[in-house]
Design a protein that fits this description.
mainly alpha; 7 helices; about 0% strand; single chain; about 170 residues
Length: about 170
């Protein structure tokens, strides 16, 4: 199970890196495999646990999608991975955000764009306050985008290491 999840997460990174998209068919394959493994390991309660693990990212991250801070593919990938992890998928979300935050900071420092993006964030907050509501995120250059799937892959990798060591 660990190897299969790592393989799927690696494929998602490859698609995201090359096309800036994570295919729906890949996410659907991950979901089907996650449900299958959960059923084999735990029966009907395993399916329920997988369902909850799939729903956590969708519910928790909807606002990030609405504001265009996260793409639908990233949320679908987290939801699909949640079928393997179950009700603890929120921990994977937190870990992937930490890893992606570190990666974004390094990328912005490397490209000397940290202060430019900080000013952008400040302007966005100002505009939201002026309008009195959350606004769609402005379009950004590809140079400023990060592949969130990389942090998800790192979180899956770390999760699997901890899972193997603890068992």
């Amino acid at each position: 199970m660990t190897f299969v999840l790592m393989l799927y997460a690696g494929l998602a990174v490859m698609f995201d890196w090359k096309f800036y998209k994570i295919p729906n068919l890949l996410c659907l394959s991950i979901v089907a495999t996650g449900f299958l493994f959960s059923y084999i390991n735990s029966g009907i309660p395993g399916i329920w646990n997988s369902f909850l693990g799939m729903m956590e990212p969708i519910i928790i991250l909807y606002l990030f999608f609405y504001c265009r801070f996260l793409g639908a593919g990233d949320i679908k990938l987290l939801a699909a991975v949640g079928t393997f992890i179950g009700r603890q998928s929120w921990k994977l979300i937190v870990l992937s955000f930490i890893l992606n935050g570190v990666g974004a900071f390094v990328k912005l420092q490397k490209n000397s764009r940290f202060f430019i993006r900080f000013q952008y964030l400040r302007g966005y907050i100002r505009d939201c306050r002026f309008e009195g509501k959350l606004l769609d995120d402005y379009q950004s250059d590809k140079m400023d985008r990060i592949h969130f799937s990389i942090g998800i892959f790192g979180a899956v990798f770390f999760w699997n290491i901890v899972h193997v060591v603890m068992n």
